[in-house]
Structure formats: C-alpha cells, structure tokens
Specification:
This is Reverse transcriptase. The protein is mainly α and 340 residues long. It folds into 2 domains: 231 residues, no CATH class; 48 residues, no CATH class. 55% of the residues lie in helices and 2% in strands. The chain has a two-stranded antiparallel ribbon. Helix 5 packs antiparallel against helix 9. It starts with a helix and ends in a 19-residue tail after the last strand.
C-alpha cells in the first residue's frame, strides 16, 4: 500500500511539472491545451484502472490544473469550469478533466474485460474475466459502477451489453450532456450560450475562432471571461460579488448601468472614439488585403503598422476609397461608407 502511494505521488509530481512547463511556454492557447492532453495527461492516464485513485485526489488535481492555468493568465478565476472541458466545436477549450477521463477509462476497461472472448490459452485474462463477471467486488468494477452513476447512465449491466462503438458514443454523449447541463445551470455563465441558442445563431460559426491556433492563451482566456460575464464591472461587483456601491452607473457616460455589454457596444461616450478606433483597426485588415489583391501593394503591408490611411488609392484596374463621403441625389444621413 505504501508503494502504491509513492507511485501515485511520483505520477502527480511529474504531471504538475509538465503542466507548468506547458502553460508557461509561448505556445498558443489551442496548442497548450493539446500539449496538456498529449504530454501531461498521459502521465496519469496509464495508471487509471491499474492503481486505485480516490476521486478526491483526481478532483484536487483538476483544481491544481486550473490554478496553474490561472497563474499563467490563461483563465479567469471565475470563468466557467465546464467550458474548460467542453469540446472546442461547441464553445469549450477541449481540456481533459482527469476525473471524467478516469471514469471513461474505467468504464472502457470494464467493458473490455466483461465482454472478453479470447482463446482458452489466455488463462490470465480468463481469470480476470470470470472475476469481474462474478461481481466479486474488485475496485475496477466498483469504480465502473460509480462512474456510470456519475454520468447518469443507469444500470451498468445494460451498459456492458452494448457494442463497442455504441458504448463509446453513449459515454461521449453523456459527458457532453453533463458538462452542458452544468454550464446551463449557471445563471451568469450561460447567458452567452442562451443568447446564441435563442437567436438561432450558428454555433459552428460563433465558436469557429476556437479552432484556430492563432490566439494566445491569455487572449483566449480573456474572451472566455467576457463571454462568461465575469469582467469586473460595477454591476458585476454589486450583483455578483455583493459589494456595497453607492452607484453602479457607467463611469464614462453616467447614464446607464455599467455592464459588460454596455461597455463593449452601448456607451455613448465610447461610441465617439473608442468604438470607431476598434472598428477601423478591424477594417484595416480587409483594406490592406484588397490593396494587395488588386496589385496596389506588390508586397503585403502589415495592417497594424502605425500611420494614417489615404482616402483614395488607385491603379489601372482598381480604385479604393477609405472613409470617403459621397454626394448623393437625395439626402442620406450616413453617406460615408467605410470602404468602396
């Protein structure tokens, strides 16, 4: 027993060491998650189903993982935990939860052992097969029963009768359903997801930025914090942190409550300057792309280089206008398009 504890301690130490290396590196957010899943998690993975792991130990390791990510400015401390483990295709970050990975692997091993059909010469596997089928109370079968209950999969006997492909699909869907349920139960964290769902927006397009490896983990974490609504605005301090404040009005316009959505897109003071700068900064990418496509710039120009953009540039095949007012035959209030 003492030797098993030493092995577990060694594995945990190595897992944390690799985790610190990965999240303090210069990798992008997506690649840090992939590196964690491929280089750090397998340190513990191969011991699941062989060593007996207490759920508290795995839960503590998951907490330790999130702390390390937070220490490296890649996750807000109040961001949704469920989103960290959801697939990137549906708005998560795709990190493997050790607790749920343990459940999945234990269920898979139990399914393999219970449904084992091999040659009679494989005496060792036959013994394990008979032992598990007889429900002798081994830790593997007990762990599988608990894992099935955690995932709300019902009786384990019915689960073991499924075909291998169907069994994997059931486990995967149950994990996703559980995580989405945890997310939707949070009144604040679920606001963005409910907005996407209620307005019929495309989940694939909404979260397509997560499939790119171009975002740094700090940027990715900040975007998630914004979507989860945990940015430290006055409304957040008052309603969530329960801080007594004399006034929660926006500190810029003094007219509306200082919520995240107000600061991002609805403040009349910021609309006169900051929003325009943000809009133009995004549009510069398209502008310089068009200049290069139509041969005005032979060599591509970096869109974020300082300097003003000329109102008109042209060559033999193209003329591009930037923020140029146009005269019209009838009155139009907004006659200054961004790009023409």
């Amino acid at each position: 027993m003492h030797a098993v504890s030493e092995v577990r301690a060694t594995l945990q130490s190595e897992y944390v060491r690799r985790l610190r290396k990965i999240w303090s590196s210069e990798l992008s957010g997506k690649n840090k998650v992939f590196a964690t899943n491929m280089l750090a998690v397998p340190v513990l993975l191969y011991s699941f189903g062989v060593l007996k792991w207490a759920r508290k130990d795995l839960r503590d390791l998951d907490i330790k993982t999130r702390k390390i990510i937070n220490m490296n400015r890649s996750m807000h401390p109040n961001s949704s935990v469920a989103r960290l483990y959801l697939s990137r295709s549906i708005g998560g970050r795709g990190l493997q939860s050790l607790e749920r990975l343990h459940d999945r692997l234990v269920l898979g091993l139990t399914h393999e052992v219970v449904n084992f059909t091999a040659d009679e010469d494989d005496f060792l596997m036959q013994i394990v097969h008979k032992h598990e089928n007889a429900h002798k109370g081994s830790f593997l079968y007990k762990a599988a029963i608990y894992a099935a209950r955690t995932l709300s999969l019902g009786e384990i006997n019915a689960l073991m009768e499924l075909r291998k492909e169907e069994f994997k699909s059931v486990i995967r869907n149950a994990e996703e359903k559980l995580l989405l349920g945890e997310l939707m139960d949070k009144s604040m964290h679920s606001v963005f997801f409910k907005h996407v769902r209620d307005h019929g927006l495309s989940t694939q397009l909404t979260f397509s930025f997560l499939k790119s490896a171009g975002l740094m983990s700090e940027t990715e974490g900040f975007i998630f914090a914004c979507q989860d609504g945990v940015i430290n605005t006055l409304e957040y301090r008052s309603k969530v942190l329960q801080v007594q404040l004399p006034d929660t009005s926006c500190r810029r316009c003094k007219q509306h409550p200082e919520t995240l959505m107000h600061l991002l897109s609805a403040c009349p003071v910021l609309a006169r300057g900051a929003y325009i700068q943000r809009h133009n900064a995004a549009l510069r990418v398209l502008y310089y792309y068009l200049r290069h496509c139509y041969g005005i710039d032979v060599t591509p120009v970096l869109p974020y280089l300082p300097g003003d953009i000329p109102q008109v540039v042209e060559n033999d095949s193209c003329k591009i206008y930037w923020n140029m007012p146009f005269a019209t035959t009838r009155r139009i209030d907004h006659n200054k398009p961004d790009i023409v």
